[in-house]
Amino acid sequence: VDSHQKRGRLVTTHPMWGTEYSGPEAAVHGAFLDKATVICNKQDSDSDAVELVENIYRALGMHILYMDGAAHDLHAAYVSHISHITSFALANTVLEKEREEDAIFELASGGFESTVRLAKSNPEMWVPILMQNRENVLDVLNEHISQLRKFKSCLEKENYSYLLELIENANKIKRILK
Question: Which of 54, 75, 116, 124 has the most CB atoms in a 10 Å sphere around its CB?
Fold first, then answer.
């Protein structure tokens, strides 16, 4: 793409919102309002092309962020890709366990549904995303596994005070996500 004669007409961008569904039937009115979108490598695009894209996003009520492609890929691994992997893994865990216990899905409610919602995402889309961003995804996945091991260790060793500390620390996310 970089060497294409019309490279300047391309604005690399990523609206940071979506559902697990695709196609026109997945459209949600007002979905992008107050959501973030990223424009990457703005300097590589023609200013009028960037302005057109910015105007579309502003008309949708989106908050525009600018960053280079490498920063986007790193941040996307932390706020999007790991969420999908976690959802896929949890769904696989429960599907495996469900073979033994029929009542699991009868007990499932809002918390479970919101946690595994992303597991319904299109694998034909997600395999290439995860493979393209493999290094960043592996980095965040290693940290996530480390965090899971801490929880596991607390339970195995009956270390309730450290378990409480881990959960209280996780609750700090409330300051960022309201």
Answer: 116
Cα separation of the two ends of the chain: 38
pTM for this model (two decimals): 0.86
Q: How many domains does the chain have?
A: 2
Inter-axis angle of helices 123-132 and 82-98, to 10 degrees?
130
Summarize pLDDT for 9-42 with one digit per residue, the tens. 999 999 999 888 888 888 999 999 999 999 999 9
Distance CA 28, CA 18 (A): 9
Q: Domain span at residue 118? A: 70-175
101 shares its domain with 168: yes
Answer yes or no: do 102 and 57 share one domain. no
Q: What are the structure tokens assigned to 14, written together?
A: 């990523």
**How many other β-carbons are positioned within 10 Å of the β-carbon of residue 163?**
16
74 shares a domain with 29? no
Residues 74 and 46 in one domain: no
In angstroms, the CA 93 to CA 155 distance is 19
Using one digit for the tens of pLDDT, what is the confidence trace for 148-165?
A: 999 999 999 999 999 999
Whether the Cβ atoms of residue 91 and residue 121 lie closer than 8 Å to each other: no
Let me know if residue 2 belongs to a domain.
Answer: no
